[in-house]
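Homework help board

Subject: predicted structure for assignment chain

Our instructor gave us this sequence and asked us to write out the predicted structure in token form, then describe one feature. I got the tokens but I'm not sure how to describe them. Can anyone check?
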Amino acid sequence: MSLQGATAPRISSVLCLLAAACGASQGGGAYKTAPTSAVAYDSSGYSGGQPTAVEPSHGAVSPYEPSPAPERPGLGTSWGEHVDAPISFAPFVRASSSPWATVALHYNDEQGVGAHAAYVGARPSPLEVMAGDGSLSVSLVDDYGRLLPGFNASGRALVVGEDGARYRIVVRNGTTARFEIVTSVDGLDVIDGKPADPNRRGYIVDPHGELVIDGFRTSSSGVAAFRFGKVADSYAAQTSGDRNVGVIGFAMFAERGAVWTPAELNRRDTADPFPSRGYSTPPR
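My token output:
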């Protein structure tokens, strides 16, 4: 079914707006989480109209299956405890089918990040990563809202996590426009736990707002917290595979209409009322 111009319920958690599954370039709704967030929804990504990730099963291994590969070192994101995070829906129409900006955060334990940093060459720094022209930023924070430490190296953001620790994803919007944020953890969509795709719908962050994503969504009222854990125990390893463990992705879409980013405001501010000119040229 088409959700062009549909209106989605509103959430009452932090400052996240979700936008639903595929075909989101033109229309759809978005969910909101308490107290100021929402998500968009359409029929091609979430079964039964409920965008929810499925808890991993821990069944016995068939004797006919190959022996498991050696355990990978470092951290993945496990399926954590239930966290109340109600959502609602809000309409959102993307300005373009292409993201306004994309960002990736790589995470691991201290030893793994150190090794990765040495591999690409890096120095430690507080880690809040700017997106696009710097109008939006993304980060990982702990239970107290403190930025997790990390490195900026060769265009990569490397975040240091700790086994067993809970984390949250934070997106800050410094503009007067709304943005839709499609987010993945270990290659899985944070709304329904399926392999991620920028064409799916995502959370929406309000003008001058802050979007906080607490975990994999399990219902319209809660999530399974993000917790660092062993790769073998990660949600991805227990569902679709561990190939993309250790990376958090963001595809950011501007809303149709004017987007008052610093770059746009600078163009307005420096507009020349008398630009230089030459002679007339014949029409093409």
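Reply (TA_rk): Your tokens look well-formed. For the description, you could write something like this. The first strand starts at residue 17 and ends at 19. That's the kind of observation they're looking for.
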